[in-house]
Amino acid sequence: MPTRPEDEKLGLFANIAYGIQHILTMYGGIVAVPLIVGQAAGLAPADIGLLITASLFAGGLATILQTMGLPFFGCQLPLVQGVSFAGVATMITISGNGGIQAVFGAVIAASLIGLLITPLFSRITRFFPPLVAGIVITTIGLTLMPVAGRWAMGGNSRAEDFGSSSNVLLAGVTLAIVLLLSKLGSATISRLSILLALFAGTAIAWMAGMTDFSQVGNGPTIALPNLFHFGWPTFGTAATLSMLIVILVTLVETSADIFAVGEIVGTKVDSRRLGDGLRADMLSSMLAPTVGSFTQSAFAQNVGLVAVTGVKSRYVVATGGVILVCLGLLPIMGRVVATIPMPVLGGAGIVLFGTVTASGIRTLAKVDYQDNMNLIIVATSIGFGTLPIMLPEFYHHFPTWVQTIFHSGISSSAIMAILLNLMFNHFTTGNSQQPSVFGAAAERVIRYTDLSQLRDGDYYLDGKMYDAEGKEIALLPAGGH
């Protein structure tokens, strides 16, 4: 039986090195949610620190479950799990009415419902052809670019130096280091370019006085997570229903991430595998509040890292999960990682998130656009998905449930792509027999540059090109030089 690409074993050193690179890529995102929610709930700094530690610990366990798998749980793909951004606004609203205990109760109840309905979601694989997957992957990258931009500007919009030239310059230097290391001949250095650039950017920031290691030693070295440290969860119908909408969005986004990483890795994702991945997501989300964390989902930026490095092994990401657990048990390690300035993360993020978009475009290039409506499906879905990216306030006057669903460009484009694909490619009754302007295409297209390379007597036979004397002419693959 052939080995799946995701089952490649690279060795302990490579697993640790690439695993650290994955954690550094998503560290800023995984601590942002507990920081924002904790501040909104009025928690003391020490308690917010516990939320952050708990999120690292829960994300690590969820990552190990997703990558290594148990019977019926885990898609066994290189997906890093962490606190989902989708529920931030909803959790802030719930905390204002019932405190952090109401948030934990809503997450547990809604995740349980999500776990029960995963069989329904796992049967939608046939509605995710390359057309839909490419749209979603492209939108994932576009959605993440503003995140990279904010990181490059400093991360904290209230800080005095937010958007300063020094922050942007530091991000630019980090980006330049990534590109320079990627250009070097060594495959190992090229694959570790993001990690090395983060270290180099942090060193430059330290020399420029833009980061501070003095607080690394303050606080406990080891701290075990306390079960229900913030008290027992409280359950409310309204809070659960509002969080259920978030769970549905998370299921859509996780489905998209599973299909995206499957496309990037080059492995099959069927309904059973999708179901196992979604069940792992929901089980992790349901158990996370017991240690003080929130809903768990795959991190899209790490899907980009898989694409940019070409490292497809799930064991690498599982090692990253172990590192996350260690960070959750060893706060001092978390404090070390926290010294990486946000502009450094932003510089690396431009490459990572841009790679996600490029992967989506590559997938869309495989789609047939001749005599069908696929072009308008792509145009409408990506346009619909970019609206909340370009104008975050677009849905502010709509009901909360509408804002929760469509405020995410990923879920917006996914929903639109699925519906339009059904409308035009599955429910074909009523489709016009005449191609519209969006579907019309020439039968054949040959570039002038290609035509100029032909000589009298050249001919094509059985997949090979020959000259007038019968000598074979070398054919470059697509994109070759």
TrEMBL record:
Q: Does the keyword Mitochondrion apply?
A: no
Annotated transmembrane regions: 12-37, 43-65, 77-94, 100-121, 128-148, 168-185, 192-210, 230-252, 315-334, 340-361, 373-392, 404-424
- One Pfam family it belongs to: Xan_ur_permease
Q: What UniProt keywords are attached to this protein's entry?
A: Cell membrane, Membrane, Transmembrane, Transmembrane helix, Transport
Membrane topology according to the record? Multi-pass membrane protein
The record ties this protein, via PROSITE patterns, to: XANTH_URACIL_PERMASE (PS01116)
The terms under GO molecular function for this entry are:
xanthine transmembrane transporter activity
Q: Which InterPro entries match?
A: NCS2, UacT-like, Xan_ur_permease
Main subcellular location of this protein, as a coarse class = membrane
What subcellular locations does the record give? Cell membrane
Any one Gene Ontology cellular component term annotated for this protein: plasma membrane
**NCBIfam families, A to Z:** ncs2, NCS2_1, pbuX
Q: Which family does it belong to?
A: Belongs to the nucleobase:cation symporter-2 (NCS2) (TC 2.A.40) family.
This one is known as: Purine permease
Q: Source species, please? A: Paracoccus limosus
